[in-house]
Amino acid sequence: MDIEEITRIVTTVEHAQRDEQVEEFVALFRHDAIWTTGHGRRLFGRDEIADFTRKVLPGGMTGLSMTFEIEHILFIRPDVAAVKLVQQYRTLEGEPEGNPGSPMWVMAKEDGRWLLTACQNTEVR
Question: CA 111 to CA 99: how far, in whole Å?
């Protein structure tokens, strides 16, 4: 059940970023989450993540789509999971665009809901 819920969060992030749904994306984070972007920008807390996302996401996916593939899930505790992903930007025709990303998301389950807690994205070169 938890793997299905974590997979749903990954799918929701993919959808929210691809379709530039800022509020849908931001709602997936704990209030005190840490997010480090693929370009190394460090964001602390949902409010800072939201401010940044509202500036960069609208228009950021023009001519692109993006996919995530879960590479591995490590349950650190029953309510904490480290999720290793492969991220690939693609043209609208489905061809890979740029280098893939190698995100690591730590998720925590709170009040029965998995939330993004500490996330880092790194471009693979």
Answer: 37
The answer to whether the CB of 56 falls within 8 A of the CB of 39 is no
Range list of H helices, 19-124:
22-26, 46-56
The DSSP bridge partners found for residue 66 are 89
Q: How confident is the model at residue 42 (pLDDT cuts 50, 70, 90)?
A: very high
Residues in the chain: 125
**Mean of all residue pLDDT scores within the chain:** 91
Any idea what the Cα angle at residue 114 is, between residues 112 and 118, rounded to 5°? 140
Tell me what the mean pLDDT of segment 7-26 comes to. Answer: 93
Query: To which residue do tokens 């799918």 refer?
Result: 11
Q: Report the CATH architecture of 2-120.
A: Roll (3.10)
Q: What is the DSSP-derived secondary structure letter of residue 94? A: S
